[in-house]
Write a structure and sequence with these properties.
Helix content is about 35%, strand content about 30%. The chain is an alpha+beta fold. Strand 2 and strand 3 form a beta hairpin.
Length: about 150
């Protein structure tokens, strides 16, 4: 597995489409609380989010195909998605370590209903700081805001 960091200029439409495919497969495998309609509603926002996030790291398989990605803004993890066949095999941890080394991730937002992701971050010494009843677009998906707990 190779990790690459992409500048905004390297985020081509073709690559953004590949990352969108990873996002959709990941969401279908992990976000069971989202309806098909909700996924279709959110999907058009993903390319812009991928273009706008200041730091974008992508995991490439042996055929140089994207199988995961992570976006960071400042010291906040904005997104971390893996193709379902790569979940639970250490790739998320590898991406996370990469992001932590480069940016010191102090804050994370995660869907409250995404219990697997929440457990992943809690194992890494993050604690729930506060909860919002909706996502940043006002949709009815509670968000947990986590901060790194050093003690």
């Amino acid at each position: 597995m190779t990790l690459i960091d992409l500048s905004p200029q390297e985020r081509t439409p073709a690559l953004l489409q590949q990352l969108q495919t990873v996002w959709e497969a990941s969401v279908r495998a992990t976000h069971h609380f989202l309806t098909e309609e909700a996924i279709r509603e959110i999907a058009p926002e993903i390319p812009q989010a991928l273009r706008d996030v200041p730091s974008l790291s992508v995991a490439l398989d042996d055929q140089n195909q994207p199988v995961g990605f992570m976006g960071i803004a400042g010291h906040s993890l904005e997104m971390l998605f893996l193709a379902p066949e790569h979940q639970g095999k250490g790739l998320g941890a590898q991406l996370f370590r990469h992001g932590m080394a480069a940016h010191y991730i102090a804050q994370i937002t995660v869907n409250e209903q995404n219990e697997r992701a929440l457990a992943f971050y809690l194992r890494r010494s993050y604690k729930v700081h506060h909860r919002t009843p909706t996502d940043d677009r006002g949709r009815p998906y509670p968000i947990l805001h986590l901060t790194l707990s050093c003690y």
